[in-house]
Design brief:
This protein is mostly helical. The chain contains 17 helices and no strands. α1 packs parallel to α6, α3 runs antiparallel to α4 and α9 runs antiparallel to α16.
């Protein structure tokens, strides 16, 4: 990062970006904590609630790449403002669904529609990527994981506390006000663009943000597709397990709601430690390729442990390895992918990368539920072990660095 006033300005923008990311993620997890109770109060069964979650996942999946291209073309200020305004619309509809005089179920499903533009984390990743050198990027992206951990803890605690003390409407209104504040701060304080080198987007300066050829073109660049596929396939088994975790915690671990909340807070604390403290130090000592192999190796070991676990105590022993693998995989692959494309395409690449989690949320409830009902909890360990052991063999036989060297 350059010295002088420009460097001070960049540091201020990055700090504000971390604050805005924490704000948005906190309200998002507030919503997640109250949504099941709101759905139940409106008379939705588990199948309908699954449709609601799938709708959210599909919209985020479709919107991620388009939002990333919008961020590349229109800049950081427009991207963050759009995301916060979309989130505000979601919480406004959610608050309306809480009012007995209004049709709750249609409003609840309508509240999922603005999520197609809710991508604050990818927008923040673009800002951080644009303002950091490649060598500093894993550590800077890891700090966004720290924001994620804070969001999990604060959001879960605030959502449960406010809804218990004042009703379900209260956390939705708080989230609405917080996201309106985020939109104002984005418009007032974030620069219109954070890119050092401006290049015309593929297809010309007036290419549409919906140009699918320009979006998919990035996946065909040397070194991009292998890393992207590793990101998708390696994290899928643990993603399926986490989607089913609320049911597994009740049925398999026999946990009460409060105990599940404590366990999720444990997840959040570990994620803060790993992404905020550990990944930065590791990235200064080891290459991205070695960190990627390490995450896949730990995934494999954790998968074997999940096959053998029989109690929540056993699971708690596996959680640190699971969190390390998830965090390292996401941070390192995001860094490798953005290093493989031009500065003008970092937003689009991060939008594609951000679509991985919605993809898991889309197929997860159906695929995870089928596996769980048919084979029980150990099947998630079997799948995770087999998938990541195969990826580990491929990584050792075909080093990722070779394809990335060709890209550069």
């Amino acid at each position: 990062m350059p010295a002088g006033p420009a460097a001070a300005g960049q540091r201020w923008v990055m700090r504000l970006t971390y604050v805005l990311t924490t704000l948005e993620l906190t309200t998002l997890f507030m919503q997640f904590s109250v949504l099941p109770y709101l759905s139940r109060s409106l008379g939705l069964d588990s199948v309908s609630f699954g449709y609601l979650q799938t709708t959210f996942g599909v919209l985020q999946l479709l919107g991620g790449p388009v939002f990333g291209r919008f961020a590349d073309q229109r800049g950081a200020r427009a991207a963050l403002s759009l995301s916060f305004l979309a989130a505000s619309a979601l919480y406004l509809l959610l608050a309306a669904a809480c009012m007995p005089a209004l049709p709750g179920v249609p409003l609840l499903f309508a509240s999922r529609l603005p999520s197609v533009f809710m991508h604050t984390l990818p927008a923040a990743q673009m800002v951080v990527t644009d303002l950091t050198a490649p060598a500093e990027r894993p550590e800077a992206l890891g700090r966004l994981g720290l924001c994620f951990g804070v969001g999990i803890i604060l959001g879960s605690l605030l959502g449960g506390t406010l809804s218990t003390a004042f009703g379900i409407l209260c956390p939705t209104v708080v989230a609405l006000v917080a996201n309106l504040l985020g939109a104002v701060l984005s418009l007032a304080c974030i620069p219109s663009t954070t890119k050092k080198a401006q290049a015309p987007p593929p297809g010309g300066a007036k290419a549409s943000v919906f140009d699918l050829k320009a979006i998919t073109r990035l996946l065909l660049l040397p070194g991009v597709l292998p890393v992207f596929l590793i990101k998708v396939i390696s994290g899928l088994p643990s993603g399926l397990f986490m989607i089913m975790f609320s049911i597994i915690s009740m049925d398999f671990f026999q946990l009460e709601a409060a105990q599940t909340g404590y366990l999720m807070s444990f997840f959040g604390v570990l994620q803060m430690v790993v992404q905020g403290l550990i990944i930065g130090r590791l990235s200064r000592r080891f290459s991205e390729e070695n960190l990627l192999r390490a995450s896949v190796l730990v995934f494999t070991v954790v998968g074997l442990g999940m096959v053998l676990m029989s109690s929540v105590f056993h699971f708690c022993l596996l959680v640190p390895g699971l969190v390390f693998s998830l965090c390292t995989l996401n941070v390192v692959t995001d860094s490798m992918l953005t290093n493989s494309v031009s500065p003008a395409d970092t937003g689009t690449m991060l939008g594609l990368s951000a679509s991985v989690q919605p993809l898991t949320r889309t197929v997860g409830p159906t695929l995870g539920g089928l596996l769980y009902r048919s084979y029980g909890v150990p099947v998630f360990g079997h799948v995770q072990f087999a998938v990541n052991a195969l990826i580990l063999l491929v990584l050792w036989r075909m080093p990722v660095s070779q394809s990335r060297d060709k890209a550069h």
